[in-house]
Design brief:
Bound molecules: 5'-O-[hydroxy(phenylacetyl)phosphoryl]adenosine
Number of helices: 11
Helix content: 25-40%
Strand order of the largest sheet: 4-3-5-6-7-8-9-14-13
Distance between the termini: 32 Å
Largest sheet: 9 strands, mixed
Structural class: alpha/beta
Strand content: 25-35%
Number of strands: 21
Radius of gyration: 23 Å
Shape: globular
């Protein structure tokens, strides 16, 4: 089934025309409503009239997460505050989170693109669907939630936590679809085992997995252990949240909702556009967004766009799996973590040297983060009580900045290896 064949199966020519029209309108809109973009365009000597077709997009400036931070909180918002009906946030590299405001129309587009995704996975009005992404400032929970409602299936807003209760709900409410991170899906499978249940005791049919990278091997394992078919769901808060792209039954790349989010692949060094099929950094322009529209937003996600038609009948361009990042962002239990956030916490505390290491691992399918940090000579002590209190203070601060708990290991002065060249701050032992 296809939710919106008019858009999802549009001819390529029609799609490009629509994108050109929408881009022209968007550029006018941001030029007149966002001083940041007007200044950038003026500095590049580009006026809205220069943007007539989608190919003209290369004349426009890029936007980065740093730009969002510099304009915290609402500097890039184009719509007046009275039009904003919801705000989400995601972690910034240090200090300020990235704030994204949505108008009523933005939310309608979001639930439309999510309904397209869910329909492509095979969810119908007859399904009962558990949304097990976090509800809150993170876009996963509410974004998926309204998509399920828009489609007309029954939504169970389970959010995260209490996995045994969740499994009992899956069994008792006959939940047939689930949206969660792929690593949480594996954790569910493990908890199922622990409870002495098997996949036949629950009736899950379909999973919508995303918010973090995953592999074909993980897909096989999740599908086998939970007895469902798992589909990719991609998105990012700055552009919308979940639903920017989605897999269809062919499971060969994720269809981009390109009538709303125009994709480009660029060389992250030269910033030049790369031809279809080549791997580089994914860039999106929000063609229809009102709240905080973005021109050529650099996602830092590395992937390629897949040329050619898809056997499912959709004509929208597909993106391959995310193969890595062009920055140092980590995704731990679905939460974005920048090493610089940890650094800023450590630098604020007089007890520590600016020497630290992040050790990321996956234990029983759950990501773990250990922060090893050197205590300054004057503060290092044999008094266990004092050391434990210091450790707890750092743990609490990290939790409030990162939104996930980290294990802290206090290290003796001079025990973390100093590197000659570029300092290595992260050891990621996960095999993904
Ligand atoms: O993770 C939105 C989302 C929620 C997507 C639920 C899918 C499902 P952010 O917290 O802003 O938003 O993180 C966005 O997560 O740039 C990618 O690096 C990564 N990411 C998201 N989905 C996938 C995926 C949400 N399917 C960042 N595969 C993105 C690989 C993904 N990486």
């Amino acid at each position: 089934m296809i939710w919106n064949p008019n858009k999802e199966c549009m001819s390529r020519d029609e799609m490009r025309q629509l994108q050109g029209k929408r881009l022209h309108k968007l550029v006018n809109y941001v030029y007149h409503n966002v001083p940041f973009y007007r200044n950038k365009m003026q500095a590049m000597d580009v006026s809205p009239e220069d943007i007539q077709s989608i190919d003209d997009i290369v004349k426009l400036p890029f936007t980065t997460k740093q730009d969002l931070r510099d304009n915290y909180p609402y500097g890039l918002q184009a719509a007046p505050p009275s039009e904003i009906v919801r705000v989400h946030a995601s972690s910034g590299t240090t200090g300020n989170p990235t704030i994204v405001g949505y108008t009523r129309k933005d939310l309608a587009v979001w639930s439309e693109v999510m309904a397209r995704a869910l329909t492509a996975y095979g969810i119908t009005r007859d399904d009962t669907f558990s949304v097990s992404y976090g509800y809150g400032l993170f876009t996963g929970g509410l974004g998926a939630h309204y998509g399920v409602e828009n489609l007309g299936a029954t939504v169970i807003p389970t959010s995260t936590g209490n996995t045994e209760k969740h499994i009992r709900l899956i069994r008792d409410l006959k939940i047939s679809g689930i949206a969660c991170t792929p690593s949480y899906a594996l954790y569910l499978a493990e908890t199922l085992d622990k409870m002495g249940l098997t996949k036949d005791d629950i009736g899950l049919r379909i999973g919508a997995f995303g918010a973090e990278p995953w592999t074909e091997n993980m897909r096989k394992e999740i599908e086998e252990r939970l007895g469902l078919r798992g589909f990719n769901l991609y998105g990012l808060s700055e552009i919308m949240g979940p639903g920017v792209s989605y897999e269809c039954e062919e499971q060969n790349g994720s269809h981009i909702n390109e009538d709303h989010f125009y994709p480009e692949i660029i060389n992250p060094e030269t910033l030049e556009q790369l031809p279809l099929g080549q791997q580089g950094e994914l860039v999106f322009t929000t063609l229809t967004k009102e709240g905080m529209p973005l021109l050529r937003y650099r996602t830092k996600d590395l992937c390629s766009l897949i040329p050619g038609e898809c056997a499912c009948g959709r004509t929208s361009v597909r993106m391959g799996r995310i193969m890595g990042r062009s920055d140092d962002m980590l995704i731990i239990r679905g939460i974005n973590v920048f090493p610089s956030q940890v650094e800023s916490v450590i630098l604020e505390m007089a007890e520590f040297e600016p020497q630290y290491m992040l050790v990321v691992d996956r234990v029983n399918n759950l990501d773990t983060l250990q922060v090893q940090v050197e205590v300054r000579k004057d503060f290092f002590s044999d008094d266990i009580g004092r050391m434990l209190a210091l450790k707890k203070r750092l743990c609490d601060k990290l939790k409030s900045v990162l939104s996930i708990s980290a294990d802290v290991k206090l290290m003796e002065p001079n025990s973390i290896e100093r590197s000659q060249g570029k300092t290595k701050r992260v050891i990621d032992k996960r095999n993904i």
